[in-house]
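call fold(seq) -> tokens
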Amino acid sequence: MSIQFHKIWIEQCEATEGIRERFGLEDALDYLIGEKLFHFVQAAEQHPEFATELPAFVAEIQRLFTAGQIRDYLDSLEKRKYLAPREPDPVLDDLDQQDDEDLWLENPVMGDEELLRFFRIRQLLRQN
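ret:
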């Protein structure tokens, strides 16, 4: 049996329901949209099999969360990740360490790609 990575979103959506019950709405949104959807959209940019699955993934997210929940989450994510200035962390700066999430802040190309991906996700999740 071959693993179909482009179908992983189905299991991720199923896991989200348990995350919401156990840890709350914010953690469920962070997991599914802030982490899994962002990675899936990035994969879809280079792999057609992921791009083909993207509309179904987005539809399932829209089924799991209300339009208001999605909108509020994306507004919050935009403010805290993309619009908020980076606060220096003396411990990390002294050790000259960064985690992967902060690398895009230091690299303008990665930053632009990440910001464009965010706005693409916002557009995909917009419900009419």
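Confidence is low (pLDDT under 50) at residues 94-98.
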